[in-house]
């Protein structure tokens, strides 16, 4: 039985990975063990526990027999009362096991069977519609209790500094809690009845979903994700600027064409010509107000055109000069090359003649 208790209290790697009520039992007992018994139990419970420990120590002393021997043993081993104090030497779950021997001393297999039996009954009740709650709801309630215990632990940690093992245990329990939460959520998503029952993780706002905002569409049928629509469809059509660019010749031609049109209209219809002049003037004013450059002054355009032509001519002359220098350099290089080739040929001939003279041959022309 003791080995079985140890397994339930301490847990193994298989039980951690496995799912079921025994893992939950192990989990909650581990959480309870992190809380010191002196802060967990009430004053009455502490008194009872101390009385029981005193009685058990007195019985063991009677069995020992000799008082002198007992005194020697006390001196050798230290203060026996302090050693047997359950609030200092034992965990919360161990004390609970001792206080409930009838329930806890049952074999682990029987406990498991009982839990399975209860679970089966609960499922039947939920199917029939007569049950008050589901195992997931009980899990949620236990999670709430677990949260309260964790807050208690945090308060105790503030009052006194926790040991490194206690801190590690606390971290592990928090990880376990998050795993349990995710497991409960998965079960809730799978089971539609639990969804209808509402949130089960103790938080009333967990099941609440904010209402979805209707998507706003602009005139062109595109999605707009802000309160204001800054798309081109909502903007007014900007006046088109035809008098822009750096083609001054084309701009001059346009202005002259416009002037000739107005002059021809003045001869036939003076009012219409005046309206057209005003329209053109307002158009250019509006464009300038928007920050655009309107090139409608013929004098300035002529000046810019002359300047452009001068720059063009200057560049042309510069390019021609550059080409001349390049051509001259190329000619010089070619001449030098040809001269070098001729010199090599002549040197070869002279060498051959010298060799022939040495051998005593008669060379014509020498």
TrEMBL record:
Record family assignment: Belongs to the SURF6 family.
The species this protein was found in: Crassostrea virginica
GO BP term, example: ribosomal large subunit biogenesis
Region: Disordered, residue numbers: 1-23, 35-219, 307-366
Protein name: Ribosomal RNA-processing protein 14-C-like
Sections of the chain in a coiled coil: 248-275
Start-end of Basic residues biased regions: 68-83, 113-124, 172-189, 307-317, 346-366
GO cellular component: nucleolus
Source organism phylogeny: Eukaryota, Metazoa, Spiralia, Lophotrochozoa, Mollusca
């Amino acid at each position: 039985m003791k080995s079985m208790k140890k397994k339930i209290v301490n847990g193994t790697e298989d039980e951690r990975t496995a799912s079921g009520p025994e893992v939950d039992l192990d989990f909650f007992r581990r959480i309870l063990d992190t809380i010191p018994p002196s802060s967990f139990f009430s004053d009455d419970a502490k008194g009872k526990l101390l009385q029981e420990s005193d009685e058990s120590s007195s019985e063991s002393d009677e069995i020992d027999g000799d008082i002198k021997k007992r005194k020697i043993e006390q001196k050798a081993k230290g203060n026996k009362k302090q050693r047997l104090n359950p609030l200092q030497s034992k965990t919360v779950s161990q004390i609970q096991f001792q206080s409930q021997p009838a329930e806890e001393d049952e074999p682990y297999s029987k406990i498991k069977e009982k839990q399975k039996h209860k679970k089966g009954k609960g499922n039947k009740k939920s199917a029939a519609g007569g049950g008050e709650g589901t195992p997931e709801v009980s899990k949620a309630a236990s999670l709430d209790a677990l949260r309260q215990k964790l807050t208690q632990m945090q308060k105790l940690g503030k009052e006194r500094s926790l040991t490194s093992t206690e801190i590690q245990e606390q971290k592990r329990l928090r990880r376990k809690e998050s795993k349990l939460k995710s497991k409960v959520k998965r079960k809730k998503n799978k089971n539609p009845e639990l969804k209808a029952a509402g949130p089960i993780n103790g938080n009333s706002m967990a099941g609440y979903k904010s209402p979805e905002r209707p998507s706003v569409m602009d005139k062109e049928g595109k999605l707009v994700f802000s309160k204001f629509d800054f798309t081109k469809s909502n903007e007014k059509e900007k006046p088109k600027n035809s008098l822009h660019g750096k083609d001054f010749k084309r701009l001059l031609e346009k202005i002259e064409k416009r002037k000739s049109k107005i002059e021809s209209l003045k001869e036939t219809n003076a009012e219409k010509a005046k309206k057209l002049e005003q329209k053109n003037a307002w158009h250019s004013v509006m464009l300038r107000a928007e920050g655009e450059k309107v090139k409608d002054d013929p004098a300035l355009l002529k000046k810019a055109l002359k300047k452009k032509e001068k720059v063009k001519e200057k560049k042309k002359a510069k390019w021609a000069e550059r080409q001349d220098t390049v051509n001259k350099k190329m000619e010089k290089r070619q001449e030098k090359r040809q001269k070098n080739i001729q010199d090599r040929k002549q040197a070869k001939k002279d060498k051959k003649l010298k060799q022939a003279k040495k051998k005593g041959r008669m060379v014509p022309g020498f």
